[in-house]
Specification:
It is a single chain. 39% of the residues lie in helices and 31% in strands. It is α+β, with helices and mostly antiparallel strands. It has three domains: 151 residues, Immunoglobulin-like; 135 residues, no CATH class; 99 residues. The strands form three sheets. The chain has an eight-stranded antiparallel β-sheet with strand order 12-13-14-15-16-17-18-19. Strands 2, 4, 5, 7, 8, 10 and 11 form a seven-stranded mixed β-sheet that branches. Strand 13 and strand 14 form a beta hairpin.
Length: 515
């Protein structure tokens, strides 16, 4: 009987555990089906990823782009397959993809798939999204489609290696003819014209392919010779990391973007992202989900060390490291998490070997016992005073004069344009003092104050409320305004890194909006 009870208990435990395991999976989402970018801009898209497993998942990411080039009589389809090894952390994160750039109007189809073997062969394939390079993206805000989501399913096939495929397809052109002899002659002319067009298209594609290959080689040579890239490469090599892959998207031999992956003997990875302009890489964004060494001046800084000890004493463990590196310094963001997922941050700025700013950010808030004590004392004093006044009034019972309500001054309407410009001036002053989070917060508030009074109900709205109001008002550039609000909030709450050029552009765009 005891054995029967034990078996029943184990069966019940299994029934409770199995559904939870089966429910775990990975979901990839795209906010739109169609993305529009201006000519010359880089088509960078961040895809939200949700991992409901209780641990990180290692797998393979396949990124496929399909591009069509058409000439009279022929259509050329270029398919590029790129395969990377990557890790999807538990919880919410992003997969960053790029379709490069284009100086002519065109559309590129993108397919993204992630395959892993934990606990069995599983694949997540996002429905096809399309990137459009157009003259004015603001004209296409109503044509971007809805959200797309893909969840884990059985893997259909293993990913191959990176490849590029080119397929040519003849396009038949039939012309109207009234007589058989005329029709035969027209057909011959069509065949001859199609042959000439096909040869011309082949020559054009061969020239373009040779030019792209030459630009790619020149870009790779300039990238390897760049002082900042060499410096970062040497630093990572000293930490035991070696370069595992390089993905470049050059627009010329001296301009373009790049992404690099470094890996150590334990399989831990570091990713680098950056752009080269006129043969110079001004900064590199270095990101790692492992414990990566920060800069030497910061590691030796006593304030930084005290912040690290504070986080450790409170039960925080180091999670991710994000560093924006330049030749003269770096901006560092180190994220910490508790067992319950509560985040903490250490942000620092290093310039010319000196630590100029270090700050600690904690989202946890314990009870303020001093404030509670003050409130309790005030309440006791107020109660005693009320009781004494009541006894005195009860004893004398004086005749109270008629109460005359004082006249209330007429409220002065807020000059919201002036207020927004004042907030912008404070934001610029805060940025000059290296108070980056306050500067981005003041800039975002300036935009919210102006838009709330101009389009809303004269109260300061949140970012989400403003996006809905702007969408209803059909204001031109509403998507750009939403991006500005989102970016200022990210930096204000330590979810993003400040950037001098970006901040100046944000201030300029908000000031143009207000004035």
């Amino acid at each position: 009987m005891k054995a029967w009870h034990a078996g029943l208990f184990l069966l019940l435990c299994a029934l409770l555990v199995v559904p939870a395991a089966l429910a775990a999976g990975i979901t990839i989402t795209s906010d739109k089906t169609d993305y529009y970018f201006a000519l010359g801009d880089t088509a960078a898209i961040a895809l939200p990823v949700t991992n409901t497993y209780d641990h990180d998942i290692d797998g393979t990411l396949q990124f496929t782009t399909v591009e069509q080039l058409q000439n009279t009589g022929s259509t050329l389809t270029s398919t590029k397959n790129r395969v990377y090894t990557t890790t999807v952390p538990s919880g919410s994160s992003y997969i960053n993809i790029s379709a490069g750039t284009s100086n002519v109007p065109e559309s590129i189809q993108i397919q993204v798939a992630f395959q892993y073997t934990d606990p069995s062969a599983t694949q997540v394939t996002l429905p096809t999204i399309t990137v459009h390079f157009v003259q004015d993206p603001a004209q296409y805000t109503q044509s971007q489609g809805g959200k797309q989501t893909s969840t884990s399913g059985a893997a259909t096939s293993a990913f191959g290696s990176s490849s590029v495929q080119v397929m040519q397809q003849s396009v038949s052109v039939q012309q109207q003819a009234g007589r058989d002899a005329s029709q035969s002659s027209s057909s011959a002319l069509q065949n001859n014209q199609m042959s000439q067009d096909t040869s011309a298209l082949k020559e054009q594609l061969q020239r373009e392919a040779a030019e792209k290959e030459q630009a790619k080689k020149a870009f790779a040579q300039a990238l390897d010779a760049d002082p900042l890239v060499r410096q970062v490469n040497e630093t990572l090599a000293a930490d035991g990391y070696s370069r595992a892959s390089v993905d470049t998207t050059p627009t010329s031999g001296s301009d373009g973007s790049f992404a690099m992956t470094y890996q150590n003997a334990a399989g831990e990875q570091v990713t680098l992202n950056g752009a080269m302009t006129q043969g110079v890489v001004p900064s590199v964004l270095e990101q790692s989900a492992t414990t990566l060494n920060v800069t030497s001046p910061l590691a030796a800084n006593t304030t930084y060390q005290s912040f690290v000890r504070t986080l450790s004493d409170k039960g925080y463990t180091r999670n991710t490291t994000l560093t924006n590196v330049t030749l003269t310094g770096a901006m560092v963001n180190v994220t910490y998490l508790t067992d319950k997922g509560t985040p903490g941050f250490v942000n620092a700025t290093v310039e010319n070997g000196n630590v100029t700013q270090v700050s600690l950010g904690l989202n946890e808030k314990g009870p303020d016992y001093l404030l509670i004590a003050i409130i309790a004392v005030v309440l006791v004093i107020a109660a005693v005073c009320a009781w004494l006044i009541w006894r005195r009034l009860k004893a004398r019972k004086p005749v109270l004069p008629a109460v005359v309500s004082p006249l209330r001054p007429t409220p002065v309407p807020l000059d919201y344009r002036k207020e927004a410009l004042r907030l912008l001036a404070e934001a610029e002053a805060a940025y000059g003092r290296h108070e980056f989070r306050d500067a981005y917060g003041l800039a975002g508030r300036a935009a919210r104050v102006f838009l709330s009074y101009y389009h809303g109900d004269r109260r300061e709205l949140t970012n989400a409320e403003l996006v809905s109001v702007l969408a209803a008002s059909r204001r031109p550039g509403a998507e750009v305004i939403g991006t500005i609000l989102e970016r200022t909030s990210d930096v204000e709450f330590a979810k993003g890194m400040p950037d001098d050029t970006e901040f100046a552009a944000i201030i300029r765009q908000i000031r143009e909006l207000v004035t």
